[in-house]
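Narrative of activities, Objective 1.

The group set out to show that a structural description can be obtained from nothing but a protein's sequence at a throughput compatible with the screening campaign. Below is one input-output pair from the validation batch, recorded exactly as produced.
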Amino acid sequence: MLFSSSTFLFLFLPIVCVLYLLVRREFRDHVLLLASIFFYAWGEPRYVLVMLLIIVINYTGAILISKYEKKKIWLLLTILGNLSFLFYFKYCNFFIENINELFGGHIRLIKAIMPIGISFYTFQAISYVVDVYREEVEPQKNIYKLALYISLFPQLVAGPIVKYHDVADQLERRTVDFEKVTYGVKRFIVGLAKKVLIANTLGAMADKVFSQPIEQLDCVTTWLGAICYTFQIYYDFSGYSDMAIGLGSIFGFKFLENFNYPYISRSITEYWRRWHISLGSWFRDYMFMPIMFLPLARNTVISRSYRWMMKKVGNKTANALMTFVALLIVWFSTGFWHGAGWTFIVWGLYNGFFIFVETLTGWNRDRKSVGGKALQHFYAMLVIILGLVIFRSDTMQYAWHYLLTMFGAESGESIYRLIYYVDRPEIIVLVLAIACSMPLCRKMLEVEGRSQLRIAAVNLWLLALFVLSAASIAASTYNPFIYFRF
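Output recorded for this entry:
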């Protein structure tokens, strides 16, 4: 069930909100839990059992970690239990295909469809058991509250990835008031408009371009497709995150921000501090930092090797090599998390390469001159757009030829005039998308109570956005969501 569907907007959400607000406070969690399971079962009835098994595994694992000795063994077993589901449904066929191709084998592919959102709720489950292991939180004794954390429908299928220690207190006690509900409704409408009015429009243009054989595209058309996709994926995913944060607020939860105007970045390092913040912080907290602290462990192979390396090459070089190894692992994992394909892996390593180079050269530091800042921004956007071409392509071969065509190294010839891909309304949407990717209206939803005229203007504007979005949903059958793939 998509947030941007008529069923969700006019049936599921109103019923859940009414029930949630009408029942006694002690029963609200039960309403949300049942609603979340129903929400997931609507699209994936067969795979509700997978999610429930993950809940049981992590509930049991956390108790074993906190209660018995050999905590690392229980932690490892619980994490492996989580990853086993992810591997089977998402990555098993990828490995089979590559083994067959590499060794000329004939292993049959498994017949399994990846459960929607499994990458998101698996990472949330892992964050819970790791937080328990680190003694940052107490193990959740109430399995229903843990089930609510993992299955909560606003962020179940596409994030943001909510770490357990960020919402542990909210699971136990939270309040619902008029201010939170109104803010949540407004934030949801903004996200809905971003998804339906901007992302869908630009997505249709991008799909037209990327669906063509590469030899039938020219330089201008490839740049149009790349730019449209760059803004489609931003408004698609940030719009969904806005809707999730808004829904969370309606039900009393405060989810952390997931996007912070990433396209104003002046380096790839800054870009990844602003883009998909919950994923970046997850990899930082649960993968990058543990790897960087491995040399500090006592009497391990890694710590002894690191001390030997420091003696041979010096502290600075040893630290650079350790950073390189950590970034290599993290960005390989980031790309692989997004999809079981070589284009995703290359895209992840591509981002990691630029972050490592920026760290070594200091390119990610702010420049004081206007010209220096403009050059940094141009560099960042160019790297982002080219990287997203790799991300969007089905194969590396297609991505390579697409990039060559963008820079005129291959001479393609478009069989369609430019008007086939874009007309005047779509140009207006693209211009609005570029303008709205900058923090021009950052405080629109936080107008102070004294400015009644501004509040009324914002409310009317949001009402218009909702009406336009609802009309677009009713009139169009094109309503994809990119991150459902992940």
